[in-house]
Amino acid sequence: MRLQARTSRHKAFLSFEAMFAMIPALLMLTFALGSAHSLSVSAAERMDGQQVFDKLVSIADYAVKQGAVRTGAAGTDQVRYPNWIDESMLDGGSLARGLRQEAGLAELSIQLDDPGPGAVCVYRLVVIGDNRERIAKLFVCGE
Amino acid sequence: MQSIEALISLMFFVSICAYMLSCVAEHPALDDSLYRYQLTNDVWRVLYLRGDFKGLRLESNDPVRERLDSDLGEIEAQTGLCAYLGGIRDTSCPGQKTLARVGSINRIVFIDGSPENLTLMVGKADG
Predict the structure, then answer these.
(1) Nearby residues of B28 by Cβ (< 8 Å), 6 or more positions away
(2) Of B45, B71, B78, the CB nearest to A83
(3) pLDDT surpasses 70 at A141
(4) What would the pLDDT profile of A65-86 be if each residue is shown by its tens digit?
(5) What value, to the nearest 5°, has the Cα angle with vertex A14 and ends A13 and A18?
(6) What are the pLDDT digits (tens) for A95-114?
(7) Using the beta-carbon criterion (under 8 Å), do A137 and B74 form an inter-chain contact?
(8) Eight-class DSSP state of B39
(9) What is the pTM for the complete model shown?
(10) How many Cα neighbours within 13 Å face the side chain of A123?
């Protein structure tokens, strides 16, 4: 009888010990899961930002090399002048509209005017004017 | 013995926590290496389109050099980018000591009538 009582008391202590041991383990697990979640969220945000930036860089490169450049006839082939921007190609925003759909961006603008703070933008150095008289920045902004 | 075990476990846990927190706190900047190279090339291309290398001479009072200096100054004013032309030792920001490197490219240009290798280095003032 006495032995049985001692055994059951011993079992109770063991259960208490196991319970107290589980608390830090659970806390650690919660912390690890929380950290993993915040890590994956921040990694996703970074990747999204990098993706948008890369798209803007590609679009800007296309614009200054082909999409919005001056062209002229040299012999039979039409030649392009990279970084010499034809301002009329930017009017109306048709270039930006077409590229926005292709790139899968929610918004896109290609302009020579400074868009101001707030927008995610890249710029490229270009020349404008019939005699390349002005150095300007071509802004490509989007999200 | 149990205290030592607990201490080792605690140290292990704390080191994992520190590592995880450092991973969360770290926000590596965007990878813009291609963009920086494109900007460097833009500086070159703009100077070329403006005719700044046509008939270039080493004399500092050469009108072509003056036009080149003026365009480098204009680029610096608009973008904050400092350009240094290695072959002719020309720069848009002579007083600037520390620059964050943007990029550099090599091109062959006729200087004083003979082809010379010219290095264009572009940097941005810190801060």
Answers:
(1) A46
(2) B45
(3) yes
(4) 999 999 886 655 688 999 999 9
(5) 120
(6) 999 999 889 999 999 999 98
(7) no
(8) H
(9) 0.79
(10) 21
Measured between CB atoms, which of A39, A127, A136 is closest to B23?
Answer: A39
In whole angstroms, give the CA distance from residue B47 to residue B70: 10
User: How many angstroms separate the CA atoms of A104 and A107, rounded?
Assistant: 9
| Minimum CA–CA partner of B72 in chain A | A135
* ipTM for the whole predicted complex goes beyond 0.85: no
Q: Of the candidates B69, B51, B73, which has an alpha carbon nearest to the alpha carbon of residue B60? A: B69
Closest Cα in chain B to A42: B24
Q: Report the mean per-residue pLDDT for chain B.
A: 84
Q: Three-class SS of residue B97?
A: coil
d(CA B99, CA A93) in angstroms, rounded, equals 36
**Residue pairs spanning A and B at CB distance below 8 A:** 66
